[in-house]
């Protein structure tokens, strides 16, 4: 009476039903997780076998997918048919007051009251459980935890606590008995532990009462030399360990200033490198701005004399352009392709630009030079 019944439509949730059947069967190996295709024998009466399976089940899981209420080929909903197997299974489980769990898969939702026949409407009052593909393992774990509260564990599991308790008690009794046996053997036949003098007394012939006995010598009680030596060695080891730790601590303290100084030097080097990079970037930006200004001045002067026929103005422009000819700054990218420079790999300078513009003016104004 503790089995689980999977109720599903093959056209709707066959894949999810197979996956859930495998997970539940592995978690509850001591019961039967009923699934029609795998549990009904060939040739068995379908209705009778389903009825017997429901009678032996304690839980029915109704898998509901997106097409749970979809119509058949004739346009009629199968759930409206009184002879529908799925409807009969769920209605029978509800009448027998079994634990019925609506399991929503594939993003399905519970239907409305008006969408179900009268004998299936109590299904909507049962708390549903959602099984998603992305969180299947976690969702299935929560379902198993809920079922474990209803389905009792196997008999061997219920007896496990009792078996463990009995085993622990037997081990304790056996340990006490062994300890007492060993203690009685150490004590000897008289019941009391032998003294040192008794243990060291040599064996000899029995003394004659008629002969005078030698004076009794007081027993010499020995000391536990082995225990004292062990204690001394332990103290020596602890002392050596303490000295080693103290030496290591002193070395760390002595090396601390050097580490701090090295860290400070490293920070200073990084700061100097950062300042140098900033200064280099600032110089490059200044050179670029100056080169842009000079190239623009040369280009403006050149443009001003391109259309004139005044020789004095042309010669003055050549003089002004030559004033910029001593700069080694690189020509900005916007004017590099305008310089007739013999080396096409190298980048032309402002001087190259000035020489090129002077040559162009002279070519255009040959009568002035």
Polypeptide structure, described:
- With 369 residues, this protein is an alpha/beta fold.
- Among the domains are: 3-152, Rossmann fold (3-Layer(aba) Sandwich), CATH 3.40.50; 157-186; 300-368, no CATH class.
- 54% of the residues lie in helices and 7% in strands.
- The chain has eleven helices and five strands; from the N terminus they run E-H-E-H-H-E-H-E-E-H-H-H-H-H-H-H.
- The protein has helices at 10-27, 36-39, 46-55, 85-95, 136-148, 155-158, 160-187, 196-200, 225-305, 311-322, 350-364, and strands at 3-7, 33-34, 57-64, 99-105, 129-131.
- Strands 2-1-3-4-5 form a five-stranded parallel beta sheet, with helices on both faces.
- Helix 1 links the parallel strand 1 and strand 2 (33-34).
- Helix 3 (46-55) packs parallel to helix 4 (85-95) and helix 9 (225-305) packs parallel to helix 11 (350-364).
- The longest helix has 81 residues, at 225-305.
- The chain starts with a strand and ends in a 5-residue tail after the last helix.
- Mean pLDDT is 82; it is low at 195-209 and 214-223.
Short descriptors:
369 residues, 54% helix, 5 strands, 11 helices, single chain, 5-stranded parallel beta sheet, alpha/beta, Rossmann fold
CATH architecture title of the domain at 3-152: 3-Layer(aba) Sandwich
Tell me the major beta sheet: 5 strands, parallel
Give the C-alpha Rg: 52 Å
Per DSSP, the total helix count is: 11
Mean pLDDT: 82
As for the CATH topology of the domain at 3-152, it is Rossmann fold
Helix-strand pattern: EHEHHEHEEHHHHHHH
Kindly state the percentage of residues in helix: 40-55%
By helix and strand content, what is the structural category? alpha/beta
| Total DSSP E strands | 5
Shape assignment: flat
Strand order of the largest sheet: 2-1-3-4-5
Query: In terms of per-residue confidence, which ranges show pLDDT below 50 for 5 or more consecutive residues?
Result: 195-209, 214-223
Identify the CATH homologous superfamily of the domain at 3-152: Toll/interleukin-1 receptor homology (TIR) domain
Please write the CATH class name of the domain at 3-152.
Alpha Beta
What percentage of the residues does DSSP assign to strands (E)? 5-15%
Compute the separation of the termini in Å: 120 Å
